[in-house]
Specification:
By secondary structure, the protein is an all-alpha fold. The protein is built from nine helices and no strands. 83% of the residues lie in helices and 0% in strands. The relative contact order is 0.24.
Length: 257
């Protein structure tokens, strides 16, 4: 299980490296974000919702979902305040006495740029939930776990690309971008370990709370982060179709599992 969880985690980092070494254009960036949004939305429909509905715990679902929405809204509000504060007090490249023009100074300024915590939190929860599902899948049987690992590899590759693209767009350095994505990918292994040990024997009430919290976070990630950023580029039929392609790819993989 550890070996199979390391493969998609490594693929996610590979996606980030590709994105920083060959930064995509605006249209390709939008297509990557659309595709990632479609994949995550498909994860919600194929993996989370059936399990949540089958357990039939409306009280726990309502509580977990409400907490998930509240946490994501609070994080977005905090992130915007940090960004507004930085815009109000920018670090200048030129003052009456000093001109900051060296590459080292510019790189240092990039490192001070705040991370988009709303996006990163949504991605982190997505990766952690994926790991939980992978661990539970391997607990159910090696074949189920293997097929789920293949499906998740497609998802985390698109998420690694999308996250790296957004971090670069926010002014992060290449090294910091890859480091952040690598840290996020580690959550897949952590989630898989927890899924095959702790949550495998958890009650339906606990699982309902965890999954409904993840459901809210993933819907927020799709609607308020990935698609919002993707729509900064003028829409076209082929860009819109990438969302549905991402949904279809994971839907078919989920049916094979």
């Amino acid at each position: 299980m550890l070996l199979y969880s390391l493969v998609p985690a490594a693929i996610m980092v590979v996606g980030a490296v590709v994105a920083v070494l060959r930064p995509p254009g605006a249209a390709v960036r939008s297509a990557i974000l659309h595709f990632a949004a479609g994949v995550v939305f498909s994860v919600v429909a194929v993996e989370l919702l059936p399990d949540i509905v089958a357990r039939h715990r409306p009280l726990e679902v309502g509580l977990g979902f409400a907490v998930g929405v509240g946490v994501m809204l609070a994080l977005r509000s905090w992130t915007r305040k940090v960004a507004d504060k930085q815009k109000a007090n920018p670090i200048p490249y030129f003052t009456p006495d000093v001109m900051w023009t060296s590459e080292e100074e510019r790189a240092a300024d990039q490192r001070r740029a705040p991370l988009p915590m709303g996006l990163l939190t949504g991605v982190a929860i997505d990766i952690l939930i994926d790991g939980l599902l992978l661990g539970i899948g391997f607990a159910a049987g090696a074949e189920e776990g293997l097929l789920l690992a293949i499906a998740l590899t497609i998802e985390v590759l698109s998420l690694g690309l999308a996250t790296a693209v957004e971090l670069q767009q926010e002014g992060q350095t290449k090294i910091r971008t890859v480091s952040v994505v690598a840290a996020l990918s580690g959550l897949l292994v952590v989630g898989a370990g927890v899924g095959i040990t702790v949550l495998q024997g958890a009650s339906d009430n606990v699982m309902e709370l965890v999954l409904s919290f993840g459901l809210a976070a993933l819907l927020f990630l799709v609607t308020e982060e990935l698609l919002t950023e993707a729509h900064e580029e003028p829409e076209s039929p082929w860009l819109t179709s990438t969302f549905f392609l991402g949904f279809l790819v994971f839907l078919i993989l989920g049916m094979l599992v």
